[in-house]
Amino acid sequence: MSNLKIKVLVSMVATALALTSCAQMAEKSTSANNSNTTSAVNKLPIIQAVLTHAPNVPEQITRNYSAKVVVNMETQEKIMRMADGVDYMFWTFGGQVPGQFIRVREGDEVEFNLSNSPDSKMPHNIDLHAVTGPGGGAASSFTAPGHTSVFSFKTLNPGLYVYHCATAPVGMHIGNGMYGLILVEPKGGMSKVDREYYVMQGDFYTKGKYGEAGLQPFDMEKAIKEQPDYVVFNGSVGALNGEKALTAKVGETVRLFVGNGGPNLVSSFHVIGEIFDKVYVEGGATENKNVQTTLVPAGGAAIAEFKVEVPGTFIMVDHSIFRAFNKGALGMLKVTGPEDKIIYSGKQADKVYLPEGSAAQSIANKQTTDTTKSLSKDEQIAQGKNVFESNCLACHQANGEGVPNAFPPLAKSDFLNADHNRAINILLHGRSGPITVNGKNFDSVMPAIALNNGQIANVLTYVINSFGNNGGQVTPAQVDKQRKVAPVANDNEHG
Ligand SMILES: [Cu+2]
Predict the structure, then answer these.
(1) 379 CB contacts (<8 Å, ≥6 apart)?
(2) For every residue of 407-470, which 3-state class applies, written as one string?
């Protein structure tokens, strides 16, 4: 009996489809005047969309005619890295967060094929903000695991748009990473630039606190309270750091397609040391000029363009700044090329300024429960590199070379290599006062940095195995032991 029912249904659907296509044909042939009507349904050339994973963006569109663009996308639920030692079951468009970047042209007809992986546990759909129609496509694209839905839309408005899953509970689908960007280029095209990148922010809510190791489940209560543990670019802490940093050369113009999936937070997107020459506000047609920080709404976007004039590492942040340094909303753009001392001189002088009574400042250093499972030395080095880049690089510099008269070198540091426990104590408690490193005198302040035992062990293991240092290993147990010893006021004179 159920078989019969299905057959009846199928024939009904087929009839309905036939009816619509007839209607479409009739409509098209009348509107197409006396031109060829035979292929009226499919007059547009068919193009298979090239989709890219962040931070990459598909090539700029050069054609000057409309096309039927076929997009194939698969929703996948996947355990991936959230931070070092922290995993999360992400729900994705295309297997990564954010979802694949789609690039089409104003006036195109987009045929969207949304497949839901047979391995999925949940149904998913897609709401594209570039769609004019109910739910932005959501109702027509509701797709059970192991199925494919097809719907089409015409791109009426150019701009940069967010797409996201809109299956109930919507907040949870978005909160697990189901969002991405679709760019509808205006008919006239976009100006040529040297580099284009895709950066998308999202906030995440986990049962464990920031950095707590293991597979972390989604926390609905924190999500409702809008208290994320992680705020990240491109799906994980450090996704745009170190070797994964964006790159450019001096003199080039960079265009960032910036999105914000939310689900909750609004982003104050800023690149430290750069000014956006041009911002397409909210991803629309309005151009703002000379912008320091641009607001990217949850479920919104912005296009930021700037020429890079000097070399260096430019840090991208959500300028709600605790999110950047404590929750992960920090990425990097590395610019190489010749310096321009007129545009930026570099440090010209450094004089010690220590007002009366000043001492090492301590950043709230609550001992976080250390859940780091025991790592191999190589794993420690790999994770320590990330700790270094977000906590030490700013002062001690990218290759540990330090800054003359201000920050002592960690490269080939006789001070560091002589005594690892002393270095542990510096990280635990900070340090101020005179210090001699490699024969050079320094007299400054290093604040204590809120790191847990594992992070301190990893960063020191990384440093002593890098920058020409003598090698070795620092374990979390060793750090724990030092933590329990009362801080020593100043320990630079003995080795
Ligand atoms: Cu979903």
Answers:
(1) none
(2) ECCCCCCHHHHHCHHHHHHHHHHCEEEEEEECCEEEEEEECECCCCHHHHHHHHHHHHCCCCCC
Query: What is the pLDDT, as a whole number, of residue 410?
Result: 97
For residue 359, the 8-state DSSP code is -
Q: How many angstroms does the Cα of residue 309 sit away from the middle of ligand 1?
A: 42
Ligand 1 centroid to residue 124 C-alpha, Å: 4
Phi/psi of residue 247, each to 5°?
Answer: -130, 155
394: tokens are 């700013």
Residue 169 Cα, ligand 1 centroid: separation in angstroms?
9
Residue 75 vs residues 142, 144, 300, 478: alpha-carbon distances, Å: 11, 10, 21, 45
Distance CA 238, CA 83 (A): 7
At 231, list the tokens: 């705020």
DSSP 280: E
Give the whole-angstrom CA distance, residue 368 versus residue 249. Answer: 41
Q: Which residues make up the environment of ion ligand 1, defined by Cβ < 5 Å?
A: 124, 165, 167, 173, 178
DSSP state for residue 41 in the 8-state scheme: G
Global pTM reads 0.69
Q: How confident is the model at residue 342 (pLDDT cuts 50, 70, 90)?
A: confident
Q: Which of 254, 263, 269, 264 is CA-nearest to residue 301?
A: 269
- Residue 304 DSSP SS3: strand
Contacts by 281-290, CB closer than 8 A, 24 or more apart: 283/159, 283/160, 283/161, 284/159, 285/158, 285/159, 285/186
